[in-house]
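Dear colleagues,

For the upcoming journal club I promised to circulate an example of a predicted protein-ligand complex. I picked one with N,N-dimethyl-L-histidine because it came up in last month's discussion. The inputs are reproduced below in full, followed by the predicted structure.
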Amino acid sequence: MTEDRRDISEDERAQIIDGLLAAQAQVAPKYFYDLAGSRLFDVITLLDEYYPTVTERAVLQRYARDIAATFTAAAGRCALLAEPGAGSCEKVRFLLPVLTPAQYLALDVSVDFVALALQSLRRDFPQVRMTAAAADIAQVAQPWPLPDDEGSRLFFYPGSSIGNFTPDEALALTARIHAQCRGQGGLLIGVDLVKDTAVLNAAYNDALGVTAAFNLNLLRHLNRLIGSDFRPQQWEHLAFYDEAAARIEMHLRARETVTVRWPGEDGQASERVFAAGETLHTENSYKYTSEAFEALLANAGFAQIHRWTDAREYFGVFLALA
Ligand code: AVI
């Protein structure tokens, strides 16, 4: 998760502006997570309609011992447990006592946020060496700061954040993780599964309007990042499940004709006019069948795949062994 004030690079700024000017305007979902956005996401995870977090937690709690035993039987004692996008480092608490890795490495864009989370984790698990490091796993050109110690590595990627990448990007990311296992170790990943459309639509259109606030807050964040003049009251939240694409799409829809301006190069203002009803696409959240996700992991190079799920089969936790 990100701190409230973050300077962006010229490249990031150019990417945001290109997205705003595209025929279908779009913004990368990572910009949801300023301080307010991170807090709003935490509230989303407490909502009745948003089943993924609570379901994944229950699966991890119930099967952590099984998962650890399966990993250890195949790869030996875990030398490094690495969690990309670790955030508040909450879910790893289920794994640490049963997996007993020599080292836990929390990777996140906001290293300060994670460092804070590690303070209390260290108190509870003093036998595990813990480190935080900065990494934006969405940046394919950026190497991950992994220690080059010997031994087996387990990458932990819970929360179905993989669903916020396109299937091609998800394949590239899991293949990258496979390569970093160096033939010994694996990936433990949480994935939201395809289910009844009404359940999916409700999860992204909660009755309290928290997801709407989370979506609209992106506009405030953009204003701070690029100096734009979005006015949230001119926009409304839109989220729907597209069955053919197996994804939730989130958009912000202009309630009226909206002109958005931001400072361009040489002090010249640039702008985009949105007609009433036109949208800014803010997020995709892909859902997978178990078979489709297992096929993706196999294509990424993993040799053996295990799966744990809840009774309704709403959420899958997959252990893919290198
Ligand atoms: C973080 N990510 C997995 C969430 C999801 O469900 O795609 C983000 C989210 N967007 C709206 N509600 C939650």
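Two points we might discuss: The first strand starts at residue 25 and ends at 26. Residues 44, 159-161, 163-164, 204, 211, 283, 285 surround N,N-dimethyl-L-histidine (CB under 6 Å).

See you all on Thursday,
B. R.
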